[in-house]
Amino acid sequence: MSNTTEDIFKNVIAHAKEYGFVFPSSEIYDGLSAVYDYGQNGSELKNNLKTYWWKAMVQMNDNIVGIDSAIFMHPTIWKASGHVDGFSDPMIDNKDSKKRYRADQLLEDRIASLDEEGKTSEAEELQLEMDNALKAENLPRLRELIIEQNIKCPVSGTANWTDVRQFNLMFSTQVGAIADESDTIYLRPETAQGIFVNYLNVQKSGRMKIPFGIAQIGKAFRNEVIARQFIIRMREFEQMEMQFFVRPGTQREWFDKWKETRLKWHLALGTAPEKYRYHEHTKLAHYADAAYDIEFNFPFGFKEVEGIHSRTDFDLSQHEKFSRKKMQYFDPEVDPETGKPYGNYVPYVIETSIGLDRMFLLTLINAYEEEDLSTEERQDSRTVLRLHPCLAPVKAAIFPLTKKDGLPEKAREIMDSLKLDFNLQYEEKDAIGKRYRRQDAIGTPFCITVDHQTLEDNTVTIRHRDTMAQERVPADQLDKIIGDLVSWKNVL
Length: 492
Ligand code: GAP
Fold this sequence. Notes:
Substrate binds at residues 102, 190, 237-241, 351-355. It comes from Mucilaginibacter terrenus. By secondary structure, this protein is an alpha+beta fold. The chain has 3 domains: 3-72 and 187-363, Bira Bifunctional Protein, Domain 2 (BirA Bifunctional Protein, domain 2), CATH 3.30.930.10; 88-168, 2-Layer Sandwich (Herpes Virus-1); 385-490, Anticodon-binding domain (Rossmann fold, 3-Layer(aba) Sandwich), CATH 3.40.50. It has helices at 5-18, 40-59, 75-80, 83-86, 103-116, 120-135, 139-148, 192-196, 199-205, 251-267, 314-323, 356-367, 407-418, 432-442, 452-457, 478-486, and strands spanning 22-24, 36-38, 64-67, 88-93, 100-102, 165-168, 172-174, 184-186, 212-221, 236-246, 276-280, 290-298, 301-310, 329-334, 341-345, 348-355, 368-372, 381-385, 396-400, 424-426, 446-450, 459-464, 470-474. The strands form 7 sheets. It has a 7-stranded mixed beta sheet with strand order 3-9-10-16-13-12-11. Helix 5 runs antiparallel to helix 6 (120-135). The chain is globular and about 75 Å long. The protein starts with a helix and ends in a 6-residue tail after the last helix. Glycyl-adenosine-5'-phosphate (GAP) is lined by residues 190, 192, 222, 224, 233-234, 237, 239, 241, 304-307, 351, 353-355, 357-358.
């Protein structure tokens, strides 16, 4: 049994590997830092999270449509968006260990330890100083704070620091055969720009009227210098983003609406509300006029899972300037104040941007439980993933009680009747108890056992993951029983 939250986090990572959720990438070559692969159960869970998001954003809103834009984009896009010049982290190197750190993270760790020591006012003062330095892009001041706080490199143990420098996070590569400057393109660091540059295509081809949204799920790449906390900070990760185009002047109202709507989406999965909180940005990104994070209380503290940003008309105006193509929308609706149509304008944008991998980790941590099942007679325990049934990678496992007497054939027949609608697993090896434990460990909500009585009356036992209760039900009702529990109607 795990005692500390640190133990639990370590156990979740080990569990994720042992049960086919997440593997370190290129493991047989000793891995590749900050890159991970999703295994057979992980990719099912990830797909279910994508489906939950897509249904909530696209299917349930008739003014939101989804697209799938390319990862490679014209390099000027990243000039226009500000990423070439501004998408960087303040880095500092330790001269003795030659290790590189994010200056703001060194200070944030210091703030966290001051907090833990109960030195709240010192922590607050440092936070303010750091925020001001970041806002003013005052890199020498960040270095001064690190020195004043006597922050040492965890590897060399010295405070022999270089200056703080900005380090761009975009990966670049070359297109075509000749490696020439002009052929440099970038792996997208966010999916949002693929939406912005297609905004008119979608608006015109879909005859969309403001307010409307464009959603997208896809990979993004960032050359994170500090790889941390498993799949929290990766170099290749996935985002689920939605840009909502609104009339200028209405952005605050839509920002508040989306902030609330997105938290509700998280809570609908049954997560305890106290595990979430909002965090207002003090240092706004170059494109935003308001920003909140939705944070989750991970075993290592509250961390951002999703950002809600009011991006003004920055991106569309920039693309208008750099591409010299009009990004305007004609709004025929009449302004009650002037009595005239609102006419042409560049829309303002509210963005919701959630990291799929962080959502995945949150879901796994939240579901993971080491349950003590000991009685007076004997010690017992199980590890169970209490995943919402809609998200469970396998919806039901089918077990023949034994490997003979026609039970496997009957179990296969039941499985064949259900497998088009549900992801199922067939297992005949080991005692039933062991099979239950294996399914608990991957969060399967139902285990269905086919026994000799099934051959007589076509009934099966169905065992529920959370209560471990068993009941006898007609096999021809399984479709409805499973369907009702795993229906998206339960969360949407
Ligand atoms: N388009 C806005 C945007 O990209 P962001 O706050 O940089 O905003 C949005 O990223 C979300 O993407 C974050 O809330 C986080 O969940 C996820 N994310 C960002 N960087 C990540 C990384 N290196 N690894 C995993 N997820 C990341």
